Amino acid sequence: MTNAHPMEAVVEFIKRINAGNVDALCELMTEDHLFQDALGKRFVGRETLRAGWNMYFQQVADYKIRGENFFTDKNIVAVFGTASGTSKRDGKFSAEGFWEIPAAWKSLVRDGLIAEWCVYAESSVISKKA
């Protein structure tokens, strides 16, 4: 995807997140990829994020991003929509652990790859479900 338009790269990145396919997701990251979570904590490097996404998908079943509005400014793409998933409760996944929240993401695309992925969401709702 090195020649992909920034919007195409972000849409494909979301598809790969929704599929829970960490290896495919990492194929779309730059080597120096920066991820910022909803609390502002930053993680750097494709391999760091490979481990992080693997861990997240083990903790949150069926994590999905639903983008409703997309805005582009050169190589920056903003996405507004919802995030949802099921968090473990007492070490198990159950319907009581399901959550869905409004969320936004900002992405910086470099050479068709995701260089930055920043999450903006109210995460206290999620922690109450866990």
SSE topology:
Layout: H1 6-19, H2 22-27, E1 29-36, E2 42-44, H3 46-59, E3 60-73, E4 76-89, E5 92-110, E6 113-121, H4 124-129
Class by SSE composition: alpha+beta
Strand order of the largest sheet: 2-1-6-5-4-3
Please indicate the percent range of residues in DSSP E strands (runs of 2 or more): over 45%
Number of helices: 4
Apparent shape: globular
Helix fraction bin: 25-40%
Strand count, sense and barrel status of the largest sheet are: 6 strands, mixed
Q: Any idea what the radius of gyration is?
A: 14 Å
Strand runs, count? 6
Element order: H for helix, E for strand: HHEEHEEEEH
Mean pLDDT equals 91
Q: Spans with pLDDT under 50 lasting ≥5 residues?
A: none
State the distance separating the first and last CA atoms.
Answer: 36 Å
